[in-house]
Task: inverse folding
């Protein structure tokens, strides 16, 4: 009971955290691109766009950072046995993340937000690039730690039969880490560019600042198209790699109960297929595709859940080693099908762009703000596929989830914390959504050139930028 | 020296750094609702920590993560022991952290006052609860053979722990007041000077009582350790310097006071990391909770390379934002902006408000 509750809490808080993380990774990169454009060609439109999308970025970084604190504490709070046993391995990347990424991100974000009038244009530009880099470095360390749970490497068992780190490089050359990290970075760029595209489309449809928002629509399209295509291929390769180390995860994702020796077909849609109904009604099958997806060969073998279960019992003793098949099957499909739809959408946009009709394409502009929902669904589904597919293990083959929980934390304690977290997350999520909609629909602030009411320039600033906020709350920066 | 001792020192330094750096921004957060008479004054107070608070908070995260990597056994017991208290800390950290960005983004007075009181309360609760936790480490808690806490939430509210929390919270308040005297001008500045002079004596008295209690009450002998003595002397000096309006020195002494007060907890705790009141044999120590030497070596190399860089750029931030903040009327005068060079750059934000 308390294991289930602790899992529910960890899943809830980390899914929630992971709504904001990919967005901030992607958006910080895009905002840095916008500011670079301004720096290089001096066009004030890019400065206004940088500030506009910078505000949207900061709204989400704030919530991403504070929900990350919960994750950092939860290992010890809810999974004390896990932390005690594997902390010497798993804790390392986490501490490095703090030292190398969190300091960088928070310090330079503060400098960027408050530094518009204090720093030279070049240094200020460097600040946003450091923020963007820090978000990616942060993702690298946490993915290295997580990949160790999927495929533990770089350790020895000591005399007390506990895992002890003996090769830190192995954590960063773990194939699950390398492919998983690239997949997450691509997914983040997809998320950031779809949000930027959605906001730009909303503005374009209302003919607001067409000249400016056309540019962000183009930039986000340029990032979106290659990243969504690459993310499909990298994701598929990640599936093959995970299938090697965690065959249960992939067999469950296909609801493949019995081994298929070659030319395995992919069920695109089916009813049933759970534990009590192992011969599902497959609505639509694509020949050979499963073999290709799982092994990269048409005659590849895909082991069935029943056979894998028997092998695991022989290896690890009696127990149920099959993850939740329903969650695996559908999270995989939600992710893959949505990615397919987004690819079509991106191709449509690219075609419009080539015909130079993007800013007049009524239906594209009408649909784009709604497509913003899809990356969040895909990210969540991908996360479920990876983490639920690892069950019943907390560290694949090494430690079971049920053996990792804190013995001193009672069921009541977890109920209290779960309810508290859910309530506060609903409130914070509502505040974030409200601000995103409000600031995403705002007009661009007037640029310096349109501003007739300049009363001062900073003495001797090479950039000669005046603080041109028409609204005091856009950035709380300006009293310095 | 075995590396685990070095890592105990590093962990202690992260906690000390956290209480110094985030200490003053907790103080500012607690104070801003009460000392700011107008929205502008409250805003000056919040903006004085705006660019730096997030970097300061990372000291706490890294303190936690360093314990995780270097002393997994300590991390496991400590975080599961303080479970519900940490839920409240996390709640406070979340609301406080968002108040900086979200509070100003909507004009609605109810929205603003909600975030304002979130910042105020959150800034008080975090040092109070974390201070209590540090006091508890030293006082001891019922911990069994498997290093699991056997008490309830209320068992964490040990009088000595609570007193440690209260002391550190008041010292944060003092630190915030002296910091604000360095960041403000005019009438607001004069009021803050008077206030920091008053809080200074309370903080000094509490630190003296804390040191006395930790020695006589916990049976650690009559002779104070050097950090205890330093904490008391620095706190008294800071209070006196605040009264005589030597702002820079008052702030420096107050930093020293909180640094040595937190440092003395870790000084007294060593070689233990958590004390068991159930049986001294169940104490958690540096030796029995530390990671194996390979992990510690890796972490030492990484820290030696990157931590100096962190200190450099974090120090640079404080340098960039070193000037005092002016209220819009003063700042609106272009001359002032040009004259001081580093003193101030004026704000159009405020001009917008003036119409």
Result:
């Amino acid at each position: 009971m308390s294991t289930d509750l602790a899992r529910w809490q960890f899943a809830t808080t980390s899914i929630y955290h992971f709504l904001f993380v990919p967005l901030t990774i992607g958006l910080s990169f895009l905002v840095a691109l916008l500011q670079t454009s301004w720096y290089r060609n001096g066009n004030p439109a890019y400065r206004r766009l940088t500030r506009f999308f910078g505000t949207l970025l900061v709204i989400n970084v704030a919530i991403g950072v504070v929900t990350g604190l919960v994750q950092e504490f939860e290992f010890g709070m809810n999974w004390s046995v896990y932390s005690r046993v594997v902390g010497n391995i798993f804790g390392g990347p986490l501490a490095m993340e703090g030292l190398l990424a969190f300091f960088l991100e928070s310090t330079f974000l503060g400098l960027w937000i408050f530094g518009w009038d204090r720093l030279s244009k070049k240094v200020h530009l460097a600040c946003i690039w450091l923020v963007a880099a820090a978000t990616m470095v942060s993702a690298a360390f946490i993915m290295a730690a997580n990949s160790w749970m999927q495929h533990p490497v770089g350790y020895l068992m000591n005399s007390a039969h506990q895992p002890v780190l003996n090769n830190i490089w192995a954590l960063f050359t773990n194939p699950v880490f390398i492919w998983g990290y690239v997949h997450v970075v691509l997914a983040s760029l997809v998320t950031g560019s779809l949000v930027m595209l959605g906001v730009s489309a909303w503005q374009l449809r209302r003919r607001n600042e067409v000249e400016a928002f056309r540019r962000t629509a183009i930039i986000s399209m340029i990032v979106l198209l290659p990243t969504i295509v690459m993310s499909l291929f990298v994701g598929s390769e990640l599936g093959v790699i995970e299938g090697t180390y965690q065959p249960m995860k992939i067999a469950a994702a296909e609801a493949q109960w019995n081994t298929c020796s070659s030319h395995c077909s992919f069920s695109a849609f089916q009813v049933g297929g759970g534990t009590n109904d192992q011969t599902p009604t497959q609505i639509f099958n694509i020949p050979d595709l499963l073999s290709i997806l799982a092994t990269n060969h048409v005659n590849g073998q895909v082991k069935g859940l029943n056979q894998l279960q028997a092998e695991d019992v022989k290896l690890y003793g009696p127990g149920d080693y099959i993850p939740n098949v329903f969650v695996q099957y559908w999270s995989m499909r939600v992710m893959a099908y949505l990615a397919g739809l987004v690819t079509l959408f991106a191709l449509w946009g690219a075609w419009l762009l080539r015909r130079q009709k993007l800013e007049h394409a009524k239906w594209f502009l009408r649909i784009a703000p709604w497509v913003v929902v899809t990356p969040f669904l895909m990210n969540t589904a991908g996360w479920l596929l990876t983490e639920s597919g690892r069950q019943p293990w907390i560290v694949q083959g090494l430690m079971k989830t049920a053996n990792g929980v804190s013995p001193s934390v009672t069921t009541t304690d977890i109920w209290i914390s779960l309810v508290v977290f859910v309530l506060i997350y609903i409130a914070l999520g509502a505040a974030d959504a409200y601000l995103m909609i409000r600031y995403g629909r705002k007009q661009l602030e007037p640029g310096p050139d349109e501003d007739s009411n300049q009363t001062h320039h900073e003495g001797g600033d090479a950039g000669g930028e005046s603080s041109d906020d028409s609204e005091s709350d856009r950035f709380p920066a300006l009293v310095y | 020296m075995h590396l685990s001792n070095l890592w105990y020192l590093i962990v202690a330094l992260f906690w000390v750094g956290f209480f110094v750096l985030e200490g003053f921004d907790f103080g500012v957060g607690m104070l801003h609702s009460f000392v700011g008479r107008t929205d502008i004054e409250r805003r000056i107070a919040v903006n004085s920590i705006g660019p730096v608070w997030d970097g300061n908070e990372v000291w706490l995260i890294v303190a936690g993560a360093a314990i995780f990597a270097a002393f997994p056994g300590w991390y496991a017991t400590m975080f599961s022991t303080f479970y519900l208290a940490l839920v409240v800390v996390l709640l406070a950290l979340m609301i406080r952290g968002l108040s900086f960005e979200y509070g100003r983004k909507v004009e609605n007075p109810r929205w603003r006052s909600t975030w304002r009181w979130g910042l105020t309360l959150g800034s008080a609760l975090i040092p109070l609860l974390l201070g209590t936790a540090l006091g508890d480490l030293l006082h001891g808690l019922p911990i069994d053979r498997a290093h699991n806490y056997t008490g309830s939430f209320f068992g964490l509210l040990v009088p000595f722990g609570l007193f440690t929390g209260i002391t550190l919270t008041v010292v944060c308040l003092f630190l915030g007041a002296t910091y604000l005297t360095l960041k403000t001008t005019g009438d607001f500045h004069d009021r803050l000077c008077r206030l920091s002079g008053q809080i200074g004596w309370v903080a000094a008295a509490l630190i003296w009582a804390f040191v006395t209690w930790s020695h006589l009450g916990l049976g650690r002998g009559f002779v104070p350790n050097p950090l205890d003595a330093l904490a008391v002397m620095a706190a008294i000096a800071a209070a006196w310097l605040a009264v005589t309006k030597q702002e820079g020195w008052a702030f420096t002494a107050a930093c020293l006071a909180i640094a040595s007060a937190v440092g003395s907890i870790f000084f007294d705790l060593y070689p233990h990391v958590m004390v068991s009141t159930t049986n001294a044999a169940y104490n958690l120590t540096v030796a029995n909770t530390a990671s194996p030497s390979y992990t510690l070596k890796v972490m030492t190399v990484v820290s030696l390379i990157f931590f100096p860089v962190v200190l450099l750029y974090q120090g640079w931030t404080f340098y960039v934002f070193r000037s005092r903040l002016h209220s819009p009327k003063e700042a609106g005068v272009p001359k002032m902006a040009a004259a001081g060079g580093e003193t101030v750059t004026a704000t159009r934000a405020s001009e917008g408000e003036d119409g």
Notes: The two ends of chain B are 65 Å apart (CA to CA).
